[in-house]
């Protein structure tokens, strides 16, 4: 007599459990891509808008020789001068300045100058601030106390005043492209170092007391290996948020130097702040095309970087992550309901499908249909 093999009983899905994929591709775990996938509603709109503006800024800065119709200090083409205060036309889409420069070309080349400032200033701040914060938080002692006091003193110093001082010391107030970029980068580096120092130091103080760090000490790992392999990688998770916010301040500091007359000379590179300063006198004369393009470029660049930074900051908030998790759980419960013998799916209709499957509410009594006997009586 053949015996029937037992049929395995399906295990019902617990109510409220969220199904998670077993494996996520590597590109989906990248910092900005991961935040973009986890953002919802207004947060996603802000992040997408900021990313679009940042991508446009990067494309314009990197492809400036291709996109700019003329050089940043070019005054003539085909042997003829451009002329001053030429209105926008087919040859000069945004007109010319009081000095005869093409406005569109100056705006495009100014994006590359701003990108140089962001990269040099922020990169130097990260390297110095992370190293000092790592050493100070890991070893502590008198060195930690001295570095904390110095960072607090520097952090209270206005970045624009420091940038003006650096511009005067380095290049005497008017400088070449690299002189102005380095002067701005030095000023923002000195001001931004305490920010990275504080964040990294606080994380290192927290991480160095964890069990895995103590285990590394027990097995005989040296200080350098523990700091670089175990502590550092767990202490720099929030740095992308600070980088985006500091990049915005770097653009505004460069524009402020140029607007005050301590920036880059017009024959050395394109500078949005310098162009905006020279356009002040044109506004009262009704010449709008020399002031609006560089001003809009400054605003859009700062706005794009700020939107990305604020969105990443909001997504890093544990309270917002809890709201999203609750929303996902609520959506999962609305799609399925446990019944005897298994799980009954509501289908694409969601909660409406569940209402249709459960029948009408108790207070609604369906009207009886006319039977065949009633039709005969009629």
From TrEMBL:
One Pfam family in the UniProt entry: BPD_transp_1
Membrane topology designation: Multi-pass membrane protein
GO biological process: transmembrane transport
Compositional bias (Acidic residues): 366-378
Presence of keyword Transmembrane: yes
Keywords assigned by UniProt, alphabetized: Cell membrane, Membrane, Transmembrane, Transmembrane helix, Transport
Stored InterPro entries: BP-dependent_transpt_permease, MetI-like, MetI-like_sf
Recorded family membership: Belongs to the binding-protein-dependent transport system permease family.
Protein name according to UniProt: Peptide ABC transporter permease
């Amino acid at each position: 007599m053949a015996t029937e093999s037992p049929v395995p009983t399906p295990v019902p899905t617990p109510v409220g459990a969220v199904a998670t994929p077993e494996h996520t591709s590597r590109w989906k775990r990248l910092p900005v891509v991961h935040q973009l996938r986890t953002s919802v509603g207004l947060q996603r709109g802000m992040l997408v808008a900021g990313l679009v503006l940042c991508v446009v800024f990067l494309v314009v800065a990197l492809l400036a020789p291709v996109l700019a119709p003329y050089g940043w200090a070019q005054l003539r083409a085909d042997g003829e001068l451009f002329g001053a205060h030429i209105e926008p036309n087919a040859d000069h889409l945004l007109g010319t300045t009081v000095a005869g420069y093409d406005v569109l070309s100056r705006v495009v080349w100014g994006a590359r100058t701003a990108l140089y400032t962001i990269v040099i200033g922020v990169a130097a701040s990260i390297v110095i601030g992370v190293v000092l914060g790592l050493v100070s938080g890991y070893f502590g002692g008198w060195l930690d106390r001295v570095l904390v006091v110095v960072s607090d003193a520097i952090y209270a110093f206005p970045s624009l005043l420091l940038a003006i001082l650096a511009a005067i010391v380095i290049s005497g107030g008017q400088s070449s492209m690299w002189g102005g970029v380095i002067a701005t980068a030095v000023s923002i580096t000195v001001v931004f170092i305490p920010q990275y120092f504080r964040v990294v130091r606080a994380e290192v103080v927290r991480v160095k007391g964890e069990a895995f760090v103590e285990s590394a000490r027990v097995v005989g790992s040296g200080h350098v290996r523990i700091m670089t392999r175990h502590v550092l990688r767990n202490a720099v998770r929030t740095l992308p948020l600070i980088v985006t916010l500091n990049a915005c301040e770097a653009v505004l500091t460069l524009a402020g130097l140029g607007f005050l007359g301590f920036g880059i000379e017009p024959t050395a590179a394109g500078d949005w702040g310098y162009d905006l300063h020279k356009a002040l006198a044109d506004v009262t004369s009704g010449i709008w095309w020399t002031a609006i393009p560089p001003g809009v470029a400054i605003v859009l660049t700062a706005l794009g970087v700020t939107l990305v930074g604020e969105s990443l900051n909001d997504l890093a908030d544990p309270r917002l992550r809890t709201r999203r998790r609750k929303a996902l759980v609520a959506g999962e419960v609305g799609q399925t309901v446990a019944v005897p013998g298994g799980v009954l799916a509501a289908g694409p209709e969601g909660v409406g499908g569940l209402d249709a499957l459960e029948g009408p509410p108790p207070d609604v009594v369906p009207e009886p249909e006319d039977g065949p006997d009633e039709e005969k009586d009629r």
